[in-house]
Design goal:
The structure holds 2 protein chains of 2 kinds.
Chain A lengths: L3 E2 L1 H14 L4 E8 L5 E8 L6 E6 L2 E6 H7 L3 E7 L2 E7 L5 E2 L5 E3 L1
Parallel strand pairs in A: 1-6, 2-5
Antiparallel strand pairs in A: 2-3, 3-9, 4-5, 6-7, 8-9
Chain B lengths: L20 E6 L3 E8 L2 E4 L9 E2 L1 E5 L2 E4 L1 H4 L1 H4 L4 E3 L9 H7 L7 E2 L7 E4 L2 E4 H20 L5 E6 L5 H13 L4 E6 H8 L8 E8 L4 E9 L2 E10 L4 H15 L8 H17 L5 E8 L2 E8 H26 L6 E7 L6 H11 L3 E2 L7 H13 L12 E2 L4 E5 L3 E6 L4 E2 L1 E7 L8 E8 L9 E9 L11 E7 L5 E7 L5 E5 L8 H13 L1 H35 L2 H18 L4 H31 L4 H12 L1
Classes of the chains: A alpha+beta, B alpha+beta.
């Protein structure tokens, strides 16, 4: 079981955390809802809960709750640029289909 | 493909439910848009990396241009290039004529009190021009954030009255932007520095832009920024600095002929470069082309100080006046927030620090600080922050009241009252048997109606006749979070009531806004046709250019005299139609030219292949492909 970050993603997360001035890491998760079944969650973490799994990659703590982990195992989080827009992207091997916008997906 | 930003713990939204909000600094000279992404606030650049959008709109033959693209026309096509439109917001024709006689636009004669500027595409109001700027910023935000906007916080000067605020909201409505809140510019700057969460106390916001100077004295009290006083000079800014330096260059270099626009512009540009360089360097060399050669000179900080001191002193006089108005001692000012590009000039910082004898806040880019504060506020208002974050309150800038007998103003809500707010006051009748009362809503600090600004009038009619002084008429003023006003009046004995949403006299009526919105829909089809015509024209130009380039290379070898002249005839046919307005004709001509050129294209291709293969044997290709297969 593993979740990884690409180099650009790791750097971004570190700088965002530093800017924010607090927080222990980054939460990845899934929420049911969205137009194609599930949608991704990406949040700062101030407190780690007992049901969380913690991974570490490039000095960044990645926190995933156990329920989400089944959908996210093997995911690589990337930071990319698309025209003027820039942000994080989930490269999830379990993702079978995504809605046109890519914001929600099914496994 | 939607890209994802990091949310605060527990604040993640589900897909398509993002609460994207931006802060917009709609400035006189430049405008900006900023947003909070992954907890980080930044102004958003355009595709060329420019953060500042010059607040210039050009109404050209082939459409509306905004920003740097529009600025190019300010000299060649001044009547259709609108600059500094913010100065006209919410103002009537008389206002503009009396205060800004030097503006050289043609104003159209209209029945409406909203002044309309004549341009080649029709008459436009300041609101419509501002809407073009807002649309451009909105497009940039949507492209950058990758989703629709939930809303925006737009900043306005602290001294903007109701009419000017309403005009700003109307412009946003026209640009299809939901206004979460109008925020005072100095308040936004203070928010950017986090002063809203800091200790209570009095701060000054010193805002020196390209063409305007504003000083605001604010007091933070229980999470509310009160505007104690504002002041400034609407025609003093960095451009005046450039002008002084330019005058010095002209005198030093002995330039006698400065009549041409090009000379003037180039000297002004040199002056600006010198000013900016002296923020870093002790001195700078200036080279100017003059008649019969070049002039070379050195401008150092001490000369610059001499040149600019009188101008900076003028700003400090405004500061002194604002302090007096606010009844605040200089020593009570805790901090001074520096806003506007011209506060980068070292002399300004030195003299302001000396005047206020306290620390200056300069760590945030002075051009971006207002937009930054607006974005932080927008993020809170859109609900992206936990509830315990303080929601900043604002105050009304000018007192609101009604006219009473003798042309006097009775104030009902005093300036600096935190909004939203509702206040009521009882009035009575003046004459026996009086059955109606006129309510005249006014704004301003003065006592006489004639010195105040009239916002609205309405009548409360049909209450029963009573002796003078017996009727009890309760007038209620309600101001919403944007500083907009609803006034109602009710005669308590009979229950007769009347109310009015204050439509400031210089704002647009709903009907006017609606008709403008309708126009944009009605003309959508025309706009679409125009666009596809333009696309065909561009295509035609591309085809002709490619053909000419090809002909220049190998027409001699590949084409007979006759074939060549056939191609030239078809090419000429396309040239003839491409600038006309018949899109189908252009399409046809492109097609015809392509048919005529078919054989030529085929021959070019063959000859290219032949050239490429020359000197290689067939076996080489065969062995290559075998290698690939194995």
């Amino acid at each position: 079981m593993a979740i990884t970050l690409t180099q650009p993603a790791a750097e971004r997360v570190k700088s965002f955390l530093a800017n924010r001035g607090k927080g222990v890491g980054l939460r990845l998760g899934v929420k049911t809802m969205g137009c194609s079944g599930m949608s991704y969650v990406l949040e700062f973490v101030d407190e780690i809960n007992p049901e969380d799994e913690v991974f570490e990659d490039s000095d960044v703590k990645i926190i995933v709750d156990k329920k989400s982990l089944v959908y996210l195992d093997g995911t690589e989080l990337d930071y990319t640029r698309d025209g003027l827009n820039e942000g994080f992207q989930f490269n999830n091997p379990k993702e079978k289909a995504a809605c046109g916008c890519g914001e929600s997906f099914t496994v | 493909m939607a890209l994802i930003q990091i949310a605060e713990p527990g604040e993640s939204t589900t897909a398509h439910q993002h609460r994207l909000a931006v802060g917009i600094d709609l400035g006189t000279t430049n405008s900006l848009v900023a947003s909070v992404r992954s907890g980080d606030v930044n102004t958003l650049p355009d595709p060329d990396g420019q953060h500042l959008l010059p607040s210039v709109v050009h109404y050209g033959e082939d459409g509306v241009a905004v920003g740097a693209k529009a600025q190019q026309f300010s000299i060649t096509d001044p009547l259709n290039t609108i600059v500094s439109v913010k100065r006209f917001m919410g103002r009537g024709i008389e206002d503009i004529a009396s205060k800004d006689a030097h503006y050289s636009y043609d104003f159209a004669e209209t029945e409406s009190t909203v002044p309309r500027i004549k341009t080649r595409t029709g008459d436009v109001s300041a609101i419509e021009v501002s809407a073009e700027i807002l649309k451009t910023l909105k497009r940039r935000a949507v492209e950058t954030l990758g989703d629709e906007l939930n809303g925006a916080v737009i900043t306005v000067p602290a001294y903007f009255d109701d009419a000017q605020r309403q005009a700003t909201k109307d412009a946003a409505k026209l640009a299809d932007i939901k206004v979460l809140r109008l925020l005072n510019e100095p308040t936004a700057a203070a928010v950017a520095y986090g002063l809203d969460t800091g200790n209570e106390g009095v701060i000054a916001v010193y805002d020196l832009g390209g063409g305007t100077f504003d000083i605001s004295i604010l007091r933070l009290n229980k999470g509310v920024f009160e505007v104690l006083a504002t002041g400034g000079d609407s025609s003093l800014g960095g451009d005046d600095f450039d002008y002084e330096i330019a005058q010095w260059i002209i005198a030093q270099a002995n330039i006698s002929n400065t009549d041409t626009a090009a000379t003037k512009r180039s000297i002004m540009q040199q002056a600006r470069i010198a000013k900016e360089a002296l923020a870093e360097a002790e001195s700078i060399e200036i080279n100017i082309d003059v008649e019969g050669g070049q002039w070379q000179g050195v401008l150092d900080r001490s000369v610059l100080k001499e040149l600019l001191t009188p101008l900076v002193k003028r700003t400090l006089m405004s500061c002194r006046r604002a302090l007096r108005d606010a009844d605040i001692d200089k020593a009570d000012i805790k901090e001074v927030v520096m806003v506007g590009g011209s506060t980068r000039t070292l002399l300004v910082r030195e003299m302001v620090a000396e005047f206020f004898e306290c620390e200056l806040l300069t760590s945030i880019d002075p051009d971006k600080v207002v937009a930054t504060g607006a974005a932080l506020q927008a993020d809170v208002l859109a609900g992206n922050k936990p509830d315990d974050e303080m929601l900043l309150l604002d105050v009304i800038p000018l007192s609101l009241g009604i006219e009473t007998m003798g042309g006097l103003v009775e104030k009902i809500i005093y300036r600096n009252t935190a909004i939203p707010v509702a206040k009521a006051q009882d009035f009575t009748t003046y004459k026996d048997g009086q059955t109606a009362m006129a309510v005249h809503v006014l704004q301003g600090e003065r006592e006489l109606v004639s010195d105040s600004r009239s916002l609205a009038r309405f009548e409360l009619r049909g209450f029963p006749p009573q002796v003078a002084g017996a009727a009890r008429i309760r007038v209620t003023f309600q101001v919403d979070a944007d500083g907009l006003l609803i006034v109602s009046a009710r005669e308590e004995n009979s229950g007769v009531e009347a109310s009015i949403d204050v439509k400031p006299s210089y704002g647009l009526s709903d009907a006017e806004i609606e008709s403008m919105l309708r126009e944009s829909i009605d003309f959508a089809e025309d706009d679409m046709h125009l666009r596809s015509l333009r696309e065909q024209q561009v295509d035609a130009e591309r085809v002709i250019e490619a053909l000419d380039a090809a002909l220049a290379v190998d027409a001699e070898q590949l084409l007979s005299q006759e074939e060549r002249s056939n191609i030239m005839v078809a090419r000429q046919a396309l040239v003839d139609v491409k600038d006309q307005n018949d899109k189908e004709q252009i399409k046809q001509s492109i097609k015809q030219l392509e048919v005529v050129c078919d054989e030529y294209v085929a021959r070019r291709m063959n000859s290219n292949i032949k050239n490429a293969m020359q000197g290689h044997s067939i076996e080489e290709y065969a062995s290559d492909s075998e290698a690939e297969e194995s």
